[in-house]
Design a protein that fits this description.
3 helices, about 0% strand, mainly alpha
């Protein structure tokens, strides 16, 4: 019984996380994604300092990849 229950508990917890994050005000969501984008941007700049990235476009890509990843995990 436990073996069948655990996957469903994980699915419900993941759905609750999606629900929580989707109900954030736009300002909070933007701050969260901007912070993550800045960290990823800094890591890329350390690895490849000569690369030029537009931070606004890069933030858009990060947000889309995050949405894809979250729902891919749910699937």
């Amino acid at each position: 019984m436990k073996q069948k229950l655990l996957p469903w508990i994980l699915v419900i917890l993941w759905m609750a996380l999606i629900f929580f994050l989707s109900h954030q005000p736009a300002i909070e969501s933007s701050e969260l994604s901007s912070g993550i984008t800045k960290r990823v941007y800094d890591i890329i700049k350390m690895i490849a300092p000569d690369i030029s990235l537009d931070l606004g476009s890069f933030n858009h890509i990060i947000r889309k990849l995050a949405h894809f990843g979250v729902y891919m995990i749910l699937g």
